[in-house]
UniProtKB/TrEMBL annotation:
GO cellular component, one term: cytosol
Name of the protein in question: Phosphoglycolate phosphatase
Lineage summary: Archaea, Methanobacteriati, Methanobacteriota, Stenosarchaea group, Methanomicrobia
Amino acids binding Mg(2+): 9, 11, 173, 177
Pfam families, per the entry: Hydrolase_3
Entry's Gene Ontology molecular function annotations: magnesium ion binding; phosphoglycolate phosphatase activity
UniProt cofactor(s): Mg(2+)
Species this chain originates from: Methanohalophilus halophilus
Length: 226
């Protein structure tokens, strides 16, 4: 089967563990010959800058599916979920030592430093009746709507590109990539990936981080998937 596009995470997937861009992975993505969508839990400006520096077209899914942009000069699609997140954050603030990240940049979710266990925050919100999700991407904690994720973001992006979501290959490393793997036509987890993500991946690389992405793209080409 030939896939028509690629959706790929950034941090931990095309970077080293310290978030430095892996240049060989970037070169492979730049020369792939099909559209490449960067899908990240980070903010839009970070994702867009990464796309520009790699030499891609500016198609990005940011804030775990909450913000979607089809190009550098296009108006982003922004979900309406921030009010719900702010209420959850206000509830948690007097109960935990929370350190908020990217406060002025995030439009659809709230990111926190990883100084508290995500499950502790999740349990607290559930006991209070909040229908929210707290996920740990290993780079930050995210308070977000359960209705929004990289899977819904990829489905929206596919529609905007006149593709089916199953036309995409997905590559990632973290728990927040799970829904993207579930809707994509094929999912590859790099070796450093979360065990839960590995369990649903179609393929797991032997190499980690950016080296894993290079391995994944070589495998896809050998299988004539791209």
């Amino acid at each position: 089967m030939k896939f028509k596009a690629l959706a790929i995470d950034i941090d931990g997937t095309i970077t080293y563990s310290d978030r430095r861009l892996h240049f060989m992975a970037a070169e492979h993505l730049r020369n792939l010959g099909i559209p490449v969508v960067l899908a990240t839990g980070n903010v839009l400006c970070y994702a867009a800058a990464t796309s520009k520096l790699i030499g891609l077209g500016g198609k990005v899914i940011s804030e775990n599916g909450g913000v979607i942009s089809t190009g550098f000069d296009t108006k982003p699609h922004i979900s309406d979920s921030m009010e719900e997140c702010e209420k959850a954050f206000s509830y948690l603030t007097p109960r935990f030592d929370l350190i908020r990240l990217d406060n002025d940049l995030r439009k659809t979710e709230i990111a926190l430093r990883r100084n508290i266990d995500a499950e502790v925050l999740q349990s607290s919100l559930e006991r209070a009746g909040f229908h929210m999700e707290v996920i740990d991407t290993r780079f930050a904690l995210h308070i977000k709507s359960r209705k929004i994720n990289k899977g819904t973001g990829l489905a929206k992006m596919a529609s905007l590109m006149d593709l089916d979501v199953s036309d995409f290959v997905a590559i990632g490393d973290s728990a927040n990539d799970r829904e993207m793997f579930e809707v994509a036509g094929y999912g590859i987890a790099v070796s450093n990936a979360d065990p839960d993500l590995k369990s649903i991946a179609d393929y797991v690389t032997s190499m980690s981080f950016g080296e894993g992405t290079v391995e994944a793209l070589n495998i896809l080409n050998r299988k004539k998937f791209l």
